[in-house]
């Protein structure tokens, strides 16, 4: 454990030198998912204990309101995230990422020991996984939830191996680990992990039909063991669904209301596909550029880094060649190959087949995330390879094979490097077409020689007498640790904490003037973290999977070249391109735009200007202040008002076009009109008398029937009471809420409770009780019998 901790500290040496910094990547000046999404969300968790009007159930400040509980990336029920309720997120979140890298290494070590690898190869495997280049790149991109989830992968396999052996607690361990993976907050990797675990067990399930035992007497026992294993796996699936029901049901309801509810066409998914040129990264993670100058397939370096780590790759090939009959080498080799082919998307048959046949695969846009598991398989196979080389050195008659293997590895490595470079050079560097230029680019200017030389030295030391064994292992461990530190130096940077909280004149202006209204601003000028911290309502905010109603409203009101970037606040805001009536209807009182703007815009009045520093600046880099201008919108509608005129949704017409034709002061856009025909209420403001995260009270006065419109997001779970009596909440102007009212004075109260929470909590409680009963019961032995040739299979113990 201590060696793995030392390896993690070495790998993240930049954070070790500055332990109070934030861990980021070099791209975008330190702005990534950690600083833009996870840090604001975790700081919001801490504020819920300090302020009564905040709640982990609903976030009222971003995107006209959005669910917190039920959002699949919130991670509220993941136990390590509970620390953010008591410890400032900026001090802890980076070290929690490092801790999960260490935890991934610990799990890989324990799993390797279960497979009866020696101590040294097991530690080596753990170091390979915790410092895998793809994991480091994802950490540099700030993918906090993904790293947390993937760290539990080895423990999921530990649970599955206990299920295979018929051990007590196998079902409970596997179910608990997969439930924790769900609570981490990123379903894509959990889906991939479940598919991989199921594929891992397919050879065992095959005993139901084709027992692999030559002895006829053993075949009924094999079928019985396989049927019991299949039953356990079904129970695991039911138990995971039951344990996670408390959040699974709210998450399912949320997913049905997001932009990905109908799935994504395979032609839309080139965001995260590998290409032939990606194979160059197997030898050098910088072959196609780094995080700041990537020029390979896809859009982002972190998503398409096809690098397993050269030490892991070389020794993994040795493990496949030398231990192919040993469990789980063959299974992991096959799964590793399939996972890499899956990451190539539609360029191989694997992903299109699963995209078409397996439910859920089409909901996610980055097939290359399967490289998380490719890195895990490579680490285990590397441990098997080192364990095999260790076993060879005890047989003097076979030592010559080590030298032969070393020479073959060198020749195959160099030859493979040349072939891969010749195959992919046109895509990577069109100017370098000669054989010699290809060779130099792919070998001499990469890290191939340095790392390969270290691995060959390990093999040479293994050929020495037994007393040199410790020296060999030290060299092997040093090779992978130094490689990981090398990768980390290129993929990771830190942000000083003093620069993470700027003195913003924008916030100083808005804090006393905005009130219940909203502001429209770019992330660089007013971040989500700042808006939450100071209680400012932003119409646009960063949410990777936003609600469909909000997304459509943003497309209609904030048109731009990239609607997704516009909704997130990453696109330059242009007041002249806004659809002003819809911006008015969303209660946008102020807009903050970059640069020094004119005194007047059509419908906007300049009220302030200045400059401010960036929110985040990489350590050692200078920062330049950005100019900004704040405009006021005099025509902004209040957040709550009453109105009787209506326009009905036409199902055969384009929804965005219908919305843009709406005059918000004269009519409200509805899916159904529940008021009787006759005279209707004219536009009149209403007053908000109570405004918290999960409860909003409004006082309204009407002379004729009409609708109270509250420009907060319509979402299941919001209920209303009018003068103490239940009322129906209707979607208004597509994204907002409305309640039908009779003439007179009324008090309308909106309350929010996460839909599905109560039923899910009951199911989860019942599941926990059932698993505890299973743990105290003594199981009958049902390990899968092995054929004579697999008697040495350590994984079946």
Q: What can you see in these coordinates?
A:
The chain contains 27 helices and 22 strands. With 797 residues, it is of the alpha+beta class. Among the domains are: 498-632, no CATH class; 640-752, Maltose phosphorylase, domain 3 (Sandwich). Strands 6-5-7-10-9-8 form a 6-stranded mixed β-sheet. Helix 4 (89-114) packs parallel to helix 7, helix 4 (89-114) runs parallel beside helix 8 and helix 17 (399-428) packs antiparallel against helix 19. The longest helix has 30 residues, at 399-428. The chain is globular and about 90 Å long. 50% of the residues are buried.
Strand order of the largest sheet: 6-5-7-10-9-8
Mean pLDDT figure? 84
Shape category: globular
**Helix content range of the residues, please?**
40-55%
Number of DSSP helical runs: 27
Low-pLDDT stretches: 422-446, 787-797
Give a brief description.
Helices cover 46% and strands 13% of the residues. The chain is α+β, with helices and mostly antiparallel strands and 797 residues long. The strands form 6 sheets. A 6-stranded mixed beta sheet has the order 6-5-7-10-9-8. Strands 14-11-17-21-20 form a 5-stranded antiparallel beta sheet, with no helix packed on it.
Can you give keywords for this protein?
797 residues; alpha+beta; Maltose phosphorylase, domain 3; 6-stranded mixed beta sheet; 5-stranded antiparallel beta sheet; 46% helix; disordered C terminus
